[in-house]
Amino acid sequence: MKPLLKAEGLEVSFGGVKAADGVNLTIHEGEFVAIIGPNGSGKTTFLNLCTGYLRPSSGTVWLEDRKITAMAPRLIARKGIARAFQIPQLFTDHTVIENVMLALAAHRNIWEALTPLNRPAYVEEAMELLELLGLEEHAKTIAGTLPEGLRKLADVTVAMALRPRLLLLDEPTSGVSALERFPLMDTLMKAMRAQNITALFVEHDMEIVEKYADRVVVWDSGQVMAEGRPDTVMKDPRVLKSVVGAL
Ligand SMILES: Nc1ncnc2c1ncn2[C@@H]1O[C@H](COP(=O)(O)OP(=O)(O)OP(=O)(O)O)[C@@H](O)[C@H]1O
User: Fold this and answer.
1) Which molecular function GO terms apply here (predicted)?
2) Rounded to an integer, what distance in angstroms lies between the CA atom of residue 103 and that of residue 116?
């Protein structure tokens, strides 16, 4: 498998806390990788380092053969890394399809306000994405009125409109009812496979990790403490003790 994202020796501290303490991790094209670990172990810090919201004091992040460590978040997004959920990215007063159309326009650097909403080609492209996420019936719903599960799918649709190669997801099933979480993940997985998107997701729900992740990476104290197939990693006594038991 071809490496898509590579982190080497990432370090960053806040006061005395080492939120990244020599992080090394490679994500391969087509993988669906889960990150687990106790609160405060540095999972979100890692996503922030990959998207340019934080700069490491040392270490490098590569997207294929390009160093992205010192790039601005907007440039990194243009190079192909998108993020969903942690940053509220829906315009809550606009309809779902308008949100997707604005993201399509942003991706193409068309900034004139309202222009994208008048372009028929964008309607078609946005509808294709909405159908992929099963949201076609909600295209004209005001985004701010969507229930949580659908809001998450709309958020992912907006992220996908940026045509990412790698999508970072912060807890895709948090706030979603027990009944809805598997159908939500099924829809997300199907959409990502259809668009050849590689994904990295932070998750606290071990059932979701076991069912959907190709690989799981366990974080502890700013470091990767274990990684591998979920069925193997979840049996590792160190993981059970320090991570799964603590979740
Ligand atoms: N901007 C910041 N300023 C100060 N401290 C920070 C900042 N971001 C993270 N930290 C600290 O760095 C450590 C790692 O935090 P991080 O949010 O990355 O952990 P996490 O594994 O994502 O936790 P959680 O599961 O609770 O989201 C914590 O001790 C946190 O308090």
Assistant:
1) ATP binding; ATP hydrolysis activity
2) 9
The ipTM estimated for the assembled molecules is 0.96
pLDDT tens track for 164-173? 999 999 988 8
pLDDT of residue 14: 95
What's the rounded Cα separation, in Å, for the pair 231 and 209? 10
What is the residue with the minimal CA distance to atom 29 of ligand 1?
Answer: 40
pLDDT of residue 74: 87
Confidence at residue 246, expressed as pLDDT on a 0 to 100 scale? 52
- Substitution site in 10, 11, 14 for ligand 1 pocket (most atoms within 8 Å of beta carbon): 14
DSSP 167-188: EEEE-TTTTS-HHHHHHHHHHH
Fold of 1-80+164-247: Rossmann fold (3.40.50)
Domain ranges of the chain: 1-80+164-247, 89-163
Cα–Cα dist 72/53, whole Å:
8
What single DSSP character describes residue 42? Answer: S
Residue 19 CB–ligand 1 contact under 6 Å:
yes
Sign of the dihedral defined by the CA atoms of residues 66, 69, 72, 78, in that order: positive
b/e 179-216 (16+ beta carbons within 10 angstroms → b) = ebbeebbebbeebbeeeebbbbbbbebbebbeebbebb
Higher pLDDT, 110 or 150: 150
